[in-house]
Structure formats: structure tokens, C-alpha cells
Design goal:
This protein has 182 residues and is of the alpha+beta class. The chain has five helices and eight strands; from the N terminus they run H-H-H-H-H-E-E-E-E-E-E-E-E. The radius of gyration is 18 Å and the shape is elongated.
């Protein structure tokens, strides 16, 4: 029987009433390290996991022998949205631990001048969203448009695309895509 280290870490962290940021601070690791482990995007080495568990504090044996009940979560407080973004762009995922998730709901913030990266994105699925605040330059399959608050978009994600904040204030977007990004 395999153990889902990411889900188990999240459940233990929540049982101890710790945010990802607080656990990272206590363990002496980055916030993104905790987030990536909880999302099962990285498999920590034994020594890395021990370091993280020291922040709880908890022994490795306790972590693997603990009976953590599966919790069906419906509501997700702000500090439970893992950040999937980069150093500049903040992309928060709602419902990351929902079983059999077929949709990603994201809250994205782009500081002035930031973008989704130098390369055009392309992946399976569809995505759509709405600008809540600021301005967003969106390029999809060679067509570029600047969107303002209330403007939206929807396209097949297989088309090359890129997001860029061309305004002077932070740009905020609420978006969704499938298949899920995690």
C-alpha cells in the first residue's frame, strides 16, 4: 500500500493549525517546498521530509504510522490555496486536494510588467477567465488583445498563449481550466 505523502503532510499540518508559510518557517525551508510536497509535485528525500517534520514537530515513524482520516473538504480558506506561480506571478489553486478533481479554479495576480514567461504556453484542455482588476494582455494563437476589468476569455489551451500585465497596477484574474493543472 502506498502512502500519499503530500496529502498526509497537509492533513497533519492542518491538524496542527499551521499555514504552509508557518510550517516552512519552522522547518527552515521555502514556502514553495511545502506547497510542492503537498501537491505531490515533488517527492521529498527522507532527509528533506525529516527536516519538514521537525517543524511540526513529528518523528518520521509517527508521520507514516499516523492514522489520518480522509477529509472531504468543501471550503478552502485563503491560506490553503497553494501558489503555483513563479517568483513574480501569484497563482492560487482552489480545491487542490479534492478527490477526482476535473477542473482547476485559479486566482491569479500579475504585478506590473510581469508575464507567464518568455515561452508561449500550450497544453491539453480549455481555459477561461475574467479580469477583476488591472489590465491583461493576452496572446492566443498569434492574436493579441488587452483586457480590462469585466473582460473575459475562453480558448482551447492547445493554442499557443501568453499572459502579460501591460498596465501600471497589479492585474487580478479569476480563471478555470481543465484538465486540472494538478
Amino acid at each position: 500500500m502506498s502512502i500519499d505523502v503530500g496529502s498526509r503532510l497537509k492533513e497533519v499540518r492542518l491538524q496542527k493549525n499551521l499555514s504552509q508559510r508557518e510550517l516552512a518557517k519552522r522547518a527552515g525551508v521555502t514556502n514553495s517546498t511545502i506547497s510542492l510536497i503537498e501537491q505531490n509535485r515533488v517527492s521529498p528525500s527522507v532527509s528533506s521530509l525529516i527536516k519538514v517534520l521537525d517543524g511540526l514537530p513529528m518523528l518520521l515513524q509517527e508521520f507514516f504510522s499516523l492514522n489520518v482520516p480522509e477529509k472531504k473538504q468543501v471550503f478552502y480558506p485563503a491560506d490553503e490555496h497553494p501558489d503555483l506561480g513563479t517568483a513574480d506571478v501569484n497563482i492560487r489553486l482552489v480545491g487542490h486536494n479534492h478527490p477526482n478533481r476535473t477542473l482547476s479554479v485559479l486566482h491569479e495576480t500579475y504585478p506590473p510588467g510581469s508575464d507567464s514567461g518568455p515561452e508561449m504556453l500550450s497544453h491539453d484542455g480549455q481555459e477561461g477567465g475574467m479580469v477583476i482588476k488591472g489590465e491583461l494582455e493576452l496572446t492566443v494563437d498569434g492574436e493579441t488583445k488587452t483586457l480590462s476589468p469585466g473582460d473575459g476569455y475562453f480558448f482551447d489551451s492547445s493554442l499557443p498563449h501568453r499572459f502579460r500585465n501591460v498596465g501600471e497596477e497589479e492585474c487580478e484574474i479569476v480563471s478555470a481550466n481543465n484538465p486540472p493543472s494538478l
